[in-house]
Amino acid sequence: MAIYVIEEKKLFQIVTAHTEYQIQADSYGVLRHLWYGEKTRCAMDYLLDYPDVGFSGNPYDVGTCRTYSLDTQPLEYACTGNGDYRIPALTVTQPDGSCSADLRYESHKVYSGKYAIPGLPAVYDDKGETLEIILRDRYSDLRVILRYGVLAELNIITRSAIIQNDGSITVRLEQVASFSLDIPSRGWEWIHFYGRHAMERVTERAPLIHGIQESSSTRGTSSHHQNPSMILCQKDCTETSGACFGAFLMYSGSFQTKIELDQLHQTRVVMGIHPELFSWALQPGESFYTPEAVLTYSDTGLETLSHRFHKVIREHVCRGKYQLAERPVLINNWEATYFDFDAEKIYNIAKEAATLGVDMLVLDDGWFGKRDSDDSGLGDWFVNENKLQGGLKQLVDRIRGLGMQFGIWIEPEMVSENSNLYQVHPDWIMQIPGRDPIRGRYQLLLDISRLDVQDYLYDCISKLLTTADITYIKWDMNRSICDWYSSLLPSQRQGELPHRYVLGLYALLERLVTDFPNVMIEGCSGGGGRFDAGMLYYCPQIWCSDDTDAYERTTIQYGTSYIYPISAVGSHVSAVPNHQTGRVTSFEARGITAMAGSFGYELNLGILNEDEKHAVTDQIHRFKTYGPLIHNGRYYRLSNPITDEIAAWSFVAEDASEALVQGMVFRTQPNALRHTLRLRGLDPKGLYQIDGTDHILTGSALLHGGVLLPKTWGDYYPFEIHLTKVSATDR
Ligand code: DGJ
Q: Within 6 Å (CB) of ligand 1, which residues are found?
């Protein structure tokens, strides 16, 4: 049991293996946040203070008491318009046009099993527990149900809210976050992940300053530019020590993370759907479900936090046949051919790949409609027989005949003006009446909130999957969204479209994963523009970035690893000079970087020399050998590639019986000592043999002294060291 309720004190304690979360409804029914941190086994209300703070007002029902203010108390779900001037989680416009909600405790429920959310992705766990706290606006029939899902062994707490209109008149939700969290001042620093197309999830860490800081997306997707995840950590927090909180949102649309350091140096975090362009008319009897946020707290540094997030995503977010299975090694033709291919060219790439040991060919953009460049064809999801003479089935059958699986690229949410679909259904796009739509990569967006659009796409995709033996889809999405207008929604409901778009996307994906359980969907949005846990509920891996440069990838994959597991990271070896940066790195450096993910190739294997072909076979062999360790083992960030001279990471088996250490030394200097690298996660008392040598070292030596990296030559010099535990020492 993880949820304890002390009825007489209205105290709720959520206790996991290493953390504790406490909330209390006070004598006024105000739900206050008491604690999220180490296990205390003590009611933490003794820490509450009641200063008389000028210009912080007092609720009417506290009488003449000047020291009780919602503006200074730690609140569990903050609302606009009740005297708390900090960032809100909930903003409601009431039927009379006023904007206020004053939530008070009404009742609660505890039940076994982790709750689910209709129409939205959520952590699943039959063995989990749920706490629901029902709050009611003091002056209306608006109820808010705060839900807490608890995965005690994993130290994971999820949060989401249901807003319920039990009154008789529609109210308007202007902002409805998944959670707010008030935590005491401890000199927090904020880690977030910013970027741009082809340079996603760059790690940035900075002290909080007084006032509000934010990371968000209003692009309709979670975006390349910020990620729906964050960490707050103490100044002295490192990979292996110190306190940190982390949260990620299971949502693929516009989001907002706001953090406020207030006048009393208290910190509030609010995370959820971005309120800009959002509003929701909540009719009498209706409920609104927020997306879910997933939280953890670690007092043993960032590494523990990442390990918990990796585990919960792999074991309780990802689903389906490929959830934990080793992924096929694939060859993708995009950087090999772009739009310039025919059936023979694709078949020849597959033939070469098959001889080298690749499992699957993925036919990327350009196989359908009139798609010879990126300005046409989207929406026409039927094969272009001029290009693929003999049709898709014939090509798939030939490639299956080589012993390979077949995967295919689609970009269902889009339409090109130069397409049959647009000629027939110009009304299906998102466009504000009387205004020209904004083009992005020449293309327009389908209004996927519409059922008829979802049905059309479902029919096209299911036809594709049933007419040929296709076992993988790469689901791309290559622009940001604007022109928010749906011709099916009345004017006063247009603000619902950004969220309805995401609900439509999830509904379509859910239908497909249910009806085609053997097909793996890989997410993609111009690389990693929709790399979030919402998508991972449907797609166990996501193409991490359109930047395939091995050096740049070390930074991108480093940032990604704070939250997301390695198996989720689609990563390929591509050609040099690299198509995004012109940089030349060795075949081995590219292989090693790509192996820290779900591995594949993205180049014309036919033009490789014999040495490179041997390297491909060798890399595939190594990935197949180490794949289970890479995906199931614990991942350790051994350096920071943004600030250090090397990129280094490792995978260690849960029982510490083996480890794989990989990385690259960025530049070679003459007359320099070789780098040493201290390892982590090993059994200090174990004896480890370094593969290919008769060198046996204690775990303790490797943890504290480290391994000596090879002598380097040139730039981006790769290394890979595999260690096997041969026995334990009693020394
Ligand atoms: C963007 C993707 O990230 C690429 O890998 C490729 O599929 C192109 N789109 C195709 O248009």
A: 334, 364-365, 409, 476, 478, 524, 526-527, 543, 546
For residues 384 and 43, what is the distance between their CA atoms, to the nearest angstrom? Answer: 67
Q: Which helix (H) or strand (E) holds 148?
A: strand 142-151
707 forms beta bridges with 677
DSSP state of 631: H
Whether residue 185 has pLDDT greater than 80: no
What does 210-278 look like in DSSP terms, one character per residue?
SEEEEEEE-SSSS-SSB-SEEEEEETT--SSSB-EEEEEE---S-EEEEEEE-TTS-EEEEEEE--TT-
Distance CA 245, CA 304 (A): 11
pLDDT at 186 (0 to 100): 77
Distance of alpha carbon 518 from alpha carbon 504, whole angstroms:
22
Collapsed DSSP state (helix, strand, coil) of residue 254: coil
395-438 confidence digits (pLDDT tens) = 999 999 999 999 999 999 999 999 999 999 999 999 999 999 99
Unique residue bearing structure tokens 């059958």: 397
Yes or no: say if 317 and 529 are a contact pair by the CB < 8 Å rule: no
Beta strands 472-475; 405-410: pairing state: parallel
For the chain, the average pLDDT equals: 97
Q: Does the pLDDT at position 229 exceed 90? A: yes
Out of 524, 542, 601, give the residue to mutate to test ligand 1, the one with the largest number of ligand atoms within 8 Å of its CB: 524
**CB-CB contact of 501 with 450 (8 Å):** no
pLDDT of residue 465: 98
Quick one: which H or E segment has residue 304? helix 301-316
Residue among 332, 333, 341, 409 whose CB has most ligand 1 atoms within 8 A, to mutate: 409
Spatial CA neighbour of 222 closest among 193, 190, 179: 193
Q: What's the mean pLDDT in 247-251?
A: 99
Q: How far is the CA of 529 from the centre of ligand 1 (A)?
A: 11
> In this predicted model, what pLDDT tens digit does every residue of 359-387 receive, in sequence order?
999 999 999 999 999 999 999 999 999 99
- The verdict on whether 547 is a catalytic residue reads no
Total length of the chain:
731
**In Å, what is the CA distance from 531 to each residue of 7, 364, 401, 526, 528?**
42, 19, 34, 10, 5
For residue 210, how many other CB atoms are within 10 A of its CB?
Answer: 10
Q: Yes or no: say if 318 and 58 are a contact pair by the CB < 8 Å rule.
A: no
Instruction: Note whether 610 and 581 are within 8 A (CB).
Output: no
Contact 646, 716 (CB under 8 A): no
Buried b / exposed e along 693-728 (16+ C-beta atoms within 10 A): eeeebbbebbeeebbebeebeebbbbbbbbbebeee
Nearest-angstrom CA–CA distance, 260 and 277? 22
Task: Write out the DSSP string of 516-569.
Answer: -TTPEEEE-BTTBTT-SHHHHTT-SEEE--S---HHHHHHHHHHHHTTS-GGGE
Beta bridge pairs of residue 383? 368
CA-CA distance, 637 to 625, in Å (whole number)? 21
Report the DSSP beta bridge partners of residue 344: none
What pLDDT does 1 receive?
87
Q: Quick one: which of 240, 241, 253, 216 has its CA closest to 87?
A: 216
**H/E element, 414:** strand 414-416
3-class DSSP string for 224-240: CCECCEEEEEECCCCCC
